[in-house]
Design a protein that fits this description.
The protein is of the alpha/beta class and about 500 residues long. The protein contains 18 helices and 17 strands. The protein starts with a strand and ends in a 5-residue tail after the last helix.
Length: about 500
């Protein structure tokens, strides 16, 4: 930084229009407090940010050498010789004579008087710095160190890898269908979007209404972007909703939106509906197998719900934007016939897996869709839509299959069959990939040609209809196996 500062005075026979020159290599933050008729010459190349120069009456400050340290205060006493009596910072070197204790005290008092009487006033931050004693300077230094530590911690948090989602979480539990799982993600503005788009799903809430992991994300992010969008979304979905119920000219002191949610939840707790657990579901399946009676277990994920929602609960264009994976999952276009077939299969299934996630395209669609198609959810036998993964995690899958004749349907049927046979499972039939909802009649014909006790169907959205028809028309047990087939075949999960 280059520049000059002029401060003139004609009193006392001192030089007028003294000039401070900050050399090309000088750094910002050098502050000069001019007393009457004082002259300052040059701040050297190594002068560092934050240096404070205080000159008394009729004083002259000499050159400050390269050894000047950050934050050092230069104080020159009353009637000091040019270039003499300079003290720079702590244990600093300067040209001139080192002051004695008495001279330092006198210099400090003179400097403070000159600061008050000087023609060029210091900026408020510089005045505050001048008044700082050793204790205050140490405190300021400690605060600076703590700020640097916090900045380093935020940087580490940004670089730290995020933990993998738990196997029972919505992110890890994809909707039914063949191929890679369409993940449930959340857009930075808080809108849940389909697979392939990055995002984050909120975890359990903290006391102030913001999930702990999200708090860290907000602290780690810079201004704007995801952090700003998330804060806006949390406010709009929490405190802003509360504010709508507060009458004019009133406030609700010290009660956060999370506290109100907790109080309201206690009121609605009697409405909680318990889902059938993995051990209970395993017992129902094995009982049906032992009794040789039909049983169908279907699962509803975002694919099935968005198919049903198209042109009923949501505009078809919005569904197409939210679910570009639907053609891959077996529904190139949601038509009235497809929606009616799918709704009838749900209505007639023995067990229906429903999403635990309350995200907009999961539970946010589940109940509006069921209501639209006239399906009373309370009449359904409900389990989790991730019951396939839960049975595997609970080590219940192999005990269900061992000793039974198993039919496999789906794109991974051959590879899954080889894997199951290695674990003592008798695979009696394999039907390869199902080409969407239109392929259901062909697959049903092939299925009827096999002898089996239980069919594991991993065929995307058509699996719901296939499981219901296999149980109803062929009298066997049919289970919507979903993406568990892919994960077992790839080795991501182990039997």
């Amino acid at each position: 930084m280059k520049g000059t500062v002029r401060a003139g005075s004609s009193k006392g026979g001192s030089s007028t229009d003294g000039v401070i020159r900050i050399s090309k290599a000088g750094r910002t933050g050098v502050v000069l407090s001019r007393g009457k008729a004082s002259t300052a010459e040059r701040v050297g190349k190594a002068s560092t940010a934050g240096s404070v120069i205080v000159a008394g009456k009729a004083d002259r400050i000499g050159n400050v050498g390269k050894a000047s340290r950050p934050g050092g205060g230069i104080r020159v006493g009353k009637a000091s010789r040019p270039g003499g009596g300079i003290r720079v910072g702590k244990a600093a070197r300067a040209r001139g004579v080192e002051k004695t204790d008495k001279a330092r005290r006198s210099s400090r008092a003179a400097g403070e008087r000159a600061s008050r009487a000087g023609g060029a006033a210091l900026a408020p931050p510089a005045q505050s710095r001048l008044r700082q004693g050793p204790v205050q300077r140490r405190r300021s230094s400690a605060l600076g160190r703590r700020a640097a530590a916090r900045a380093k911690q935020r940087t580490a948090m940004r670089r730290a890898p995020k933990p993998a989602p738990h196997a029972s979480s919505p992110q890890a539990m994809p909707a039914s269908g063949a191929g890679p799982a369409p993940r449930q993600t959340t857009h930075p503005q808080g809108v849940v979007v389909p697979a392939g788009r990055e995002g984050a799903a909120a975890s359990a809430g903290s006391a102030n209404g913001v999930p702990p992991a999200a708090e860290h994300a907000v602290q780690a992010a810079g201004p704007g972007g995801y952090a700003a969008g998330y804060r806006d979304g949390v406010f709009a979905g929490g405190e802003a909703l509360v504010a709508q119920h507060i009458p004019p000219d009133h406030i609700l002191p010290a009660v956060a939106a999370a506290d109100l949610i907790a109080a309201g939840f206690r009121q609605y707790a009697p409405s909680l509906t318990r889902l059938t657990s993995p051990h209970e579901m395993a017992g129902h399946i094995m009982a049906a197998l032992d009794a040789q009676r039909p049983l169908s277990v279907v699962r509803l994920g975002d694919g099935e719900l968005l198919t049903l929602a198209a042109d009923t609960v949501l505009p078809a264009a919005e569904v197409q934007e939210l679910a570009p994976f639907l053609p891959y999952a077996g529904v190139p276009c949601s038509t009235p016939d497809i929606r009616a077939t799918l709704a009838e299969a749900i209505r007639g299934a023995d067990w229906v897996g429903v999403p635990i996630s309350r995200a907009p395209t999961f539970q946010g669609l589940l109940f509006p869709v069921l209501r639209h198609f006239g399906i009373d959810w309370s009449s359904l036998k409900l389990t989790s839509s991730t019951i396939n993964y839960s049975l595997h995690q609970s080590r219940l899958l192999l005990p269900i299959l061992q000793g039974r004749r198993v039919l496999l349907i789906g794109s991974q049927a051959a590879e899954l069959g080889a894997l199951l046979q290695l674990h003592g499972v008798q695979v009696t039939g394999i039907i390869p990939a199902v080409a969407g909802m239109a392929d259901i009649p062909r697959v049903m014909q092939l299925t009827s040609e096999h002898t089996f006790d239980i069919a594991l169907v991993a065929a995307g959205i058509p699996a719901v209809v296939l499981c219901r028809r296999i149980a109803g028309e062929l009298g066997s047990v049919a289970f919507d196996f979903g993406h568990l087939a892919d994960k077992l075949v790839t080795g991501e999960l182990q039997l």
